[in-house]
Amino acid sequence: MTYMTIPATISGGPSIFQVRIGSGEVLSAGDEADFLVAFYQHSYQDHLHFLREGGVLLYDSDNVEPNLDDKRFVYVGVPITGLTVEALGGTAKDKGKNIFVLGLIAKIFNLDADKLKRLISEKFGGKDESIVNTALMAFQAGYAYPVGNILTKHYRFEHIPRASGRAQITMDGNQALAYGLIAAGVRFGAGYPITPWSSVMETLRRELPKYGGIFVQAEDELASVSIAIGCSYSGYLAVTGSAGPGISLKAEAIGWASMAEIPLIICNIQRGGPSTGLPTNVEQSDLHQAIFGSHGDSPRVVLAASTVEDCFYIALEAARIARKYSTPVFILSDTSLATRIEAFDEPDLPKLMQNPKPDLTPRQTHKPYPIDQVTQHAPPGTRILDGKYPLLAGLEHDEMGHPTGSPKLHMAMTAKRRNKLRKLAEEIPVPEVYGDQEGDTLLIGWGSTYGPIHDAVALARKHGEKVGALHLRHVHPLPNGLEKIFEKFKRIVTVEMNDQGLYGYGQLATILRARYGEPKITSFTKTDGLTFRVKEILGGVFEGKSFAARHIPRDGAAIVHEDTGAENVKSLREIVPQGVG
Description:
Elements: E1 2-5, E2 16-19, E3 33-38, H1 41-47, E4 51-60, E5 74-78, H2 80-88, H3 97-108, H4 113-123, H5 129-144, E6 168-172, H6 173-183, E7 188-191, H7 198-207, E8 214-217, H8 221-233, E9 238-242, H9 244-260, E10 264-270, H10 287-292, E11 301-304, H11 308-325, E12 328-334, H12 335-339, E13 341-345, H13 349-352, H14 407-427, E14 434-435, E15 439-446, H15 450-462, E16 467-472, E17 474-476, H16 482-486, E18 489-496, H17 507-516, E19 521-525, H18 534-541
Parallel strand pairs: 3-4, 4-5, 7-8, 7-9, 9-10, 10-12, 11-12, 15-16, 15-18, 18-19
Antiparallel strand pairs: 1-2, 6-13, 11-17, 14-16
Helix pairs in contact: 2-5, 3-5, 4-5, 6-7, 6-11, 8-9, 15-18
């Protein structure tokens, strides 16, 4: 798994890129690093606390002056800037030093150099050949550096054959979401660029034409959602998306889709808010916007992806629900899922691919808005043999779509639109509880908090806590039967990356308390723009109790490193949140 923190300013700033490798399931970015690379003095000063005792600090000796009297770490100084300039020369200067370090790390960790060179060539393949050659020269220079003279033994990862017979693929969450939409039969869409949604539309704009579709970059958010609604009206389920600010602009048109009962998928790749907020940082503060963000009573379905792999499958579920219940469906992701890369089993595409073609079979008669049934639209061009063609509008309407001001009919149609979500709730499976099935504490999460919550539960149980975890994919409507799980625990704590609000509860906790009237539901929240660390969750949920950081689940393969292995570490300093500054 990778995790990236980048600045939002055009001028740039401190950036972090983390990689966590394991032989088992890697759920979170980890609480501490075994290996830290520092390019600049501020990088060293701001992030040394994230390096575990006995870990290796690889630093650019041209720019960094570490405190070598601090004996907790192994120091490896390499003149990265100077060697890069020497290797590349000309106008490249030190611009290739990140690739130089990649070569250096490949040597230290005994990685497949030939494969990395192929990846570099692919990455820069669309650029001038000189740029590709420069990158490869930088990599080779780093790989050839005699690091063995400084670091006595290199890290060595054991190759463990996979139990599963399926091949694995690697991609980030936005790519997984885009390909999931294609597998779900989505062939049309429209959007407007905004971080961190943009790469979804870029992928769809590149890939949809291969499947006979098209993605339109509209002039603004209002136009993009309106174009997508038009595509869905034509019989082809469409997608639009944005981050929180853009979703605000789309709100009126989404309300129209709710009234007209048009199937539509809306992706919200959340970031820190409100307003422009924290464009490149993670937050889960758009849950209430997704559920309630409309004028009038405007029912919509809200799903939340939990992992990069789940970004693919959540798109399939969103398309299924949108078609079956003829309703707008929100997919909530966030910056963490959008940008991090994970490996997962390749989906069985022949079994998953959906046929996107609309059903134009002639019908004897058609009533699009029957009071006692779920709406199913007939695509334009479908022959209605009795000649009674329905209407479609954002005005309140009767069963044939004709506008009406009848108070009784408005009440009936409002109930109709609401009740189909109740019907959906009946078919949603109740999530499995991870850990203890009953006990003292139940942690509830949604979205990208899945991994840290599960790691926290595993560690807490090792320390004798009776704790379980439940993660929600279907956030609105909630699945029926959650109350039977809640009654088995003494307290329930939602773990959320949003503010505790005026009344002291996170956004999901507020919804659960309103739904179940259960005072034992509380929340642990934060809004620092960074993902949860395991220790943060444990400290917030189990105040006053100590959980040794070295016991955090680390399923990574064994490493070999002279005199600095975990077995030689006598104590661990307090780990504090990773981040910039």
